[in-house]
Automatic annotation (TrEMBL):
Keywords: Hydrolase. This is Signal peptidase I. It comes from the Bacteria. One of its GO terms (cellular component) is membrane. It comes from Stieleria varia. Its EC number is 3.4.21.89. Pfam families: Peptidase_S26. PROSITE patterns: SPASE_I_2.
């Protein structure tokens, strides 16, 4: 599901980079009230939005969830729960269970990462319960590392090989991240949020990424995806069947990748992809491989913000307590602010309700 629940919203397409963006209806600038929303900008290219950008925006309904009551002692880590404090209901993610120790990563900066029993929250939830945030689906951010390249980047939406035999010992295609907050210069992926474009805050680099792509090929492919992390390079390998009549999709994430040094990735080039050398022999020299829909997303990474009190950490949750966090890390009010939650404050688990138009 989306990383945050939102009320009524508007969807627009950036007139500069054509990236789709969902904006909370309350954040949209108006002619009579341009401030304080003058910082509302495209997450992808940094273009500042004006009231006129929203004239043709389509309206989206508010998210709706259903709540299933459950004995709080049967809850699992990572579930979305309905929880009450100060007479208000909230939807939060359950990350700390009774008996867990909550601490802060001593190696992190002034927005320290939150650890549960010594592990990063996002690593504890991964990969099945990790919420994802879109980073980029811009084909122009992908570059072949070889010159001349045996890959051809289409001006529309895909990469293809000129000759499948060429790519059996193939070159890497790397994702080069461009920071919209720094005039599009190369930079690491930051923990920016589509819904928070008007929130002034410190951004931090993220290193738990996902790649989605679709492949069409006359022959079976071994696909390698390399990821950069501060702890070292990681390599995801998968075998895709021949699919000349349609596309086969691939989802790769850093947690399903094994440690592997000397990959062509770095903080600013965090993902690379190639067809591995042991791909099965193609029958003809004219066989084509096409890669479509290259899309980068990131995990939600859980940190304290600068205004949070860090003096209470570390602490251990009692047998009646849990620790809940919101996926909208910059602005969520959760256990970072109100402390541990008593289990009796949890009404049940939340499930997003699919809405039809
Ligand atoms: Zn844009």
């Amino acid at each position: 599901m989306a990383p945050t629940l939102i009320g009524s919203a508007r969807q627009i397409v950036c007139s500069h980079c054509e990236h789709p963006l969902t904006v909370d209806a309350d954040s949209i600038p108006t002619d009579s009230m341009p401030a304080p929303n003058s910082t509302l900008a495209c997450l992808h290219c940094g273009k500042r939005f004006m009231p006129s950008d929203f004239e043709n925006a389509s309206a989206l309904p508010a998210d709706v969830v259903t709540v299933t009551t459950i004995d709080p002692r049967q809850l699992s880590r990572g579930e979305l729960v309905a929880v009450t404090w100060e007479d208000q209901q909230h939807v939060k993610r359950l990350v700390g269970l009774p008996g867990d120790t909550v601490s802060l990563d001593p190696a992190s900066d002034d927005r320290p990462r939150i650890l549960i029993n010594g592990q990063r929250v996002e690593d504890l939830l991964a990969p099945t319960q990790s919420p994802r945030v879109d980073v980029s689906s811009d084909l122009m951010r992908w570059h072949s590392l070889a010159l001349p390249s045996s890959w051809l980047r289409s001006t529309s939406n895909h990469w293809s090989s000129k000759n499948a035999l060429d790519i059996r010992e193939s070159e890497w295609i790397v994702y080069r991240h461009q920071d919209p907050h720094n005039a599009g210069r190369d930079g690491p992926v930051l923990d920016d949020y589509p819904m928070n474009t008007s929130v002034r805050r410190k951004l931090s680099p993220v290193d738990r990424l996902w790649l989605d792509a679709s492949f069409r090929s006359d022959f079976a492919l071994n696909v390698q995806v390399a990821f950069w992390t501060p702890e070292g390079h990681r390599l995801h390998e998968s075998h895709l069947p021949a699919s000349s009549s349609g596309f086969t999709t691939l989802t790769a994430c850093v947690w399903d990748a094994a440690a592997s040094e000397n990959q062509p990735v770095s903080a600013n080039l965090p993902i690379a992809i190639r067809i591995a050398g042991d791909t099965e022999t193609s029958d003809t020299e004219t066989s084509e491989v096409t890669i479509e829909g290259l899309s980068v997303s990131r995990s939600v990474e859980y940190r304290l913000n600068r205004h949070h009190d860090r003096s209470r950490y570390p602490f251990t949750l009692s047998e009646n307590e849990c620790f809940v966090l919101g996926d909208n890390v910059p602005i969520s009010v959760d256990s970072r602010t109100v402390g541990p939650i008593h289990l009796r404050s949890i009404q049940g688990t939340c499930h997003p309700l699919a809405l039809t138009e």
